[in-house]
DNA sequence: GTCTATATATTGATAGAC
DNA sequence: GTCTATCAATATATAGAC
């Protein structure tokens, strides 16, 4: 018989992940974590040699969650690559709304709380950022023929993350979804201008838009 | 004779402010703070009834520092209201460069570390954000005649903060100024498109730009 | 692998002399 | 207002039985 693999480690990581998200790293004690996980101190230290070590495992978990928990649910809503980008942003909006703008991006939180104090932690945070941007960049690549030729899609994908993180920060600070919606709407406006530029370029001197090419975007952000 | 006002309180707030900026709130102990301030535990508790209370004083200090430490040094570099906006952003770039992308925006750090756990803290963070945006908005108002009439300048000012905070977060996460510069460059590109739109509107059907109207912006971000 | 019990250090905060 | 001394609670981490 195969030995039954314990899920204790997984339970601990999951408990830590949730508590770090809600309370932050330093504000969460190991006692809270193993109590929430339903195990004891000894089990935690059997799997992790320190709190920092557990944090690294949490950041690894987020690496694994990017596609199943963030990208795939958003991509399922639409096949249009540009709309997929904004569908991802809509997913974060949903989290903000469901928590009364109290919970934000767990990676962003840890990035600013821990800064550069723990080198391995910072590296795993950078990896999470890089993977997120790569996923967005793949959408932009799929829409490359609708964007101006000189657009740097890797940089544009980082700009999407910039707007997302900056918008979430202000939404939480004001406990108001407005700043997030505004940021997304202005990013949308920027995209529309890029798409329109490309259409002008492709169409030569013609500048009239074909009906249906520029759908209106209901963001819920307009007052 | 007037009683000499002690600067002990000020020294404590200043020490706390610096330590919170570098290490974060929870990672900084009161012992570190009063040691750095050169005073003793008793003095700290004479002026502040708790660590949270001291944090509120730190956030008040940032409110007072907005103009002398952030806006005025940036505004001194140029009279052009749009350039002033980007001069403020250049100021944050300077801090990133001087610290090897280790230190970010102290308000943003506290916003994400503390979230909504302490109501009064969140309110003072919101006030800091609001004042920052109002200062930027005053620049946009001064350039109102160069922006499209339908631009919401309050929202655009929040977008500037969004890009700043999101860019700093990624710059710190990657320990690389690149993502910050890219974000600012893309914000600049967005502004250029807004200014160009206004110029088209004002000029009627004419679309050629007058030489000198669109200066090239050296951001140092281009690879 | 999981448990209980505990070590050791540090935390935020207080008391009371001066 | 500032000091020293110290409390009580909590933190991370360990030891060793099972």
Describe this structure in words.
The structure is a homodimer of 223-residue chains. Mean pLDDT of chain A is 92; it is low at 219-223. The first copy, chain A, has helices spanning 8-23, 30-37, 41-47, 51-75, 81-98, 106-114, 119-142, 153-174, 178-202. In chain A, α1 (8-23) packs across α2. Chain A contains 9 helices and no strands. The N and C termini of chain A lie far apart (63 Å). Chain A has 223 residues and is mainly α. The first copy, chain A, has 2 domains: 7-48, Orthogonal Bundle (Arc Repressor Mutant, subunit A); 51-202, Tetracycline Repressor, domain 2. The interface between A and B is large, with 49 and 49 residues. The structure holds a DNA duplex (18 and 18 nucleotides).
Q: Largest interface: which pair?
A: A-B, 49 and 49 residues
Order of helices and strands of chain A: HHHHHHHHH
Largest pleated sheet of chain A: none
Number of helices of chain A: 9
CATH superfamily of the largest domain in chain A: Tetracycline Repressor, domain 2
Average residue-wise pLDDT of chain A: 92
> Which outline of chain A best applies?
elongated
Report how far apart the termini of chain A are: 63 Å
CATH topology of the largest domain in chain A: Tetracycline Repressor, domain 2
Helix content of chain A: 55-70%
Number of domain units of chain A: 2
Q: Tell me, what is the CATH class of the largest domain in chain A?
A: Mainly Alpha
Counting helices, strands and paired strands, the structural category of chain A is mainly alpha
- The protein's oligomeric status is homodimer
Q: What gyration radius of chain A follows from the Cα positions, in whole Å? A: 21 Å
């Amino acid at each position: 018989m195969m030995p039954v693999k314990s899920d204790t480690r997984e339970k601990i990581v999951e408990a830590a992940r949730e508590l770090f998200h809600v309370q932050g790293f330093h504000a969460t004690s190991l006692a809270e974590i193993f109590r929430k996980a339903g195990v004891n101190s000894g089990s935690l230290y059997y799997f992790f040699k320190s709190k920092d070590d557990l944090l690294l495992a949490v950041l690894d978990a987020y690496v694994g969650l990017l596609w199943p928990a963030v990208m795939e649910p958003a991509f399922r809503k639409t096949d249009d690559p540009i709309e997929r980008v904004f569908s991802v942003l809509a997913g974060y909006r949903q989290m903000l709304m469901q928590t009364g703008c109290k919970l934000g991006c767990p990676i962003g939180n840890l990035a600013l709380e821990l800064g550069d104090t723990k080198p391995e932690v910072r590296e795993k945070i950078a990896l999470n950022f890089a993977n997120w941007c790569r996923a967005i960049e793949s959408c932009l690549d799929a829409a490359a023929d609708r964007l101006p030729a000189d657009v740097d899609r890797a940089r544009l994908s980082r700009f999407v993350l910039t707007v997302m993180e900056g918008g979430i920060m202000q939404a939480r600070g004001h406990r108001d979804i407005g700043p997030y919606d505004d940021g997304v709407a202005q990013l949308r406006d920027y995209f529309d201008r890029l798409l329109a530029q490309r259409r002008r370029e492709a169409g030569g001197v013609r500048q009239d838009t074909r009906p249906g090419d520029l759908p209106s975007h209901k963001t819920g952000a307009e007052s």
